[in-house]
Amino acid sequence: MKLVTLSEILEGTRAGHYAVPHMNVFDLSMLHGVLAAAEEARSPLIVAYGEGFSPVMKLEEFPGMVRSVAERYHIPVCIHLDHAFELSLIERAVKSGYTSVMLDVSNLPLEENIAQTKRAVGLCRPKGISVESELGHVSVGAVQNDGAAYTDPQEAGEFLARTGVDALAISIGTAHGVYTAVPNLRLDVLERIAAATDKPLVLHGGSGLTDGQFHACVQRGICKVNIHTDLAQAAIGRVRQRAAGLNYLELCAEVQRAVHDEAMHKIALFGSQNKA
């Protein structure tokens, strides 16, 4: 394993018109599934922790788990903290061995978002840790199609110039989790943001998009795509299908295979195969 930062793993993505998969995982079955898929496809990989995983995995435990498992693989791996809503979580991640973090205060006014993001960059840059931030707000489940949540392309350029972040998560009509409405995917907004900056752009709330929508986003400048719900749904679908007659160990192995298969599909879709 080559342990890398977010900046390193996303280098060349814009020019190469591909995106690196970001996989949120919280146990060994999921971790082995995504790593095995990335190794098989020779794809770089971002493995990430979210605060919502704390009932089964603590923030401080995650980097050690990834390091111990990923040693057997030969691909570049970034260990990322996803959606830290407070700087205190960034501080904990800095001490725990993450190579990349995301501060998400996108619900705040622009100036406050900029100020807090600059503080996160100040904490992480001296340690060689990459920083992602979000501008425009990606909601949960309920897709907002009224325009209020979309990232403003002009603000995106200002935000990047003033904060110095390494990657920017943007809102173009997607939503976290399972969609409760059909998203109005604004590819025109993505194109305008991509034209305003050469920084890597990130798509959150991707689970539930069609393959065609994913492809269109990557071809227009998305360099990193966050996936969790599709992995979790693949796992629970396999468990429901195969639960009868299997013991817990066998079920964990089925989860690993289901996550592997879904990860392989996403790697091929994002075009990151043979980029490791």
TrEMBL record:
Residues the record lists as binding Zn(2+) 2: D104, E134
CDD domains with a match to the protein in the record: TBP_aldolase_IIB
Cofactor(s) the protein requires to work: Zn(2+)
Pfam families: F_bP_aldolase
Co-factor: note: Binds 2 Zn(2+) ions per subunit. One is catalytic and the other provides a structural contribution.
Molecular-function annotations in GO: tagatose-bisphosphate aldolase activity; zinc ion binding
Source taxon at top rank: Bacteria
Coiled coil spans: none
Residues annotated as binding dihydroxyacetone phosphate: G177, G205, G206, S207, N226, I227, H228, T229
Claim: Metal-binding is one of the keywords in the record: yes
GO CC terms, sorted: cytosol
Positions contributing to Zn(2+) 1 binding: H83, H176, H204
Classification via SUPFAM superfamilies: Aldolase
Active-site residues, Swiss-Prot/TrEMBL: D82
Keywords per UniProt: Metal-binding, Zinc
Protein name: Fructose-bisphosphate aldolase
Species assigned in the record: Harryflintia acetispora
